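ping. complex inputs:
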Amino acid sequence: MSERVKFGLLLLLLIFSLLLAWHVNAGFKDVLVGR
Amino acid sequence: MKLLTSSFKKANDILLVLIIALNLYVIVTPYVPALSYHWQNRNDHKRQALIRIVKAPAPVPAKPQPNHIVIPAMLLDAPIYEGSVTDQFKTLDKGIWRWPGGSTPDKGGNTVLLAHRFTYTNPRGTFYYLNKLTVGQEFAVFYNNRKLTYQVSSVSEVPPTDVDIQAPSDKPELTLYTCTPLWLPHDRLVVVADLEGKL
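pong. complex structure:
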């Protein structure tokens, strides 16, 4: 695999990781008061 | 061409490090409260210090103290926040929220305190170890510059629809609750404690 293709894939993976980290940071909490 | 390949190689190394760091953050953070608890529990100093606070006669505060709760079994000494129901999420993000529909510790009746079991943001896992509380254990609440000690009378798990845990009571008691099982909002872990003494 060329370094250029690897770069593209890693960039995609980084974007997904950033989205996951942002999502858990903002939204991962138990909905205690959803009564 | 060779220069371009080498630049991509360098960039790929950096991207890989960033990806690993981000994913480690996502995977490891849920265990931070547990690591912190075990680190603080490596010797018994913190627990003993908190037990001394619970057992000691209330000192006369030189200036008004913030409302807080001290639970030795959970190695917890955390502030209690007041807030309206409309601000519930904001208040819960800060830590322990006194449900305004309930009583207050100094007035008697059923005081309801709730907190998240775990969040990625600070304070992570205020009630992470609420399951460490067992019947008979003591803890203290400092409220409006008064010290109130409680003894756990029951520990139970109820579905989220069971609003009876927030119902008013004739006797002075404290209801603490959070989500259970750990990391999931499936049910509620409820600890009820009876007032032992007021100072």
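Strands of chain B lie at 68-71, 76-82, 96-98, 110-114, 138-143, 146-158, 173-180, 187-198.
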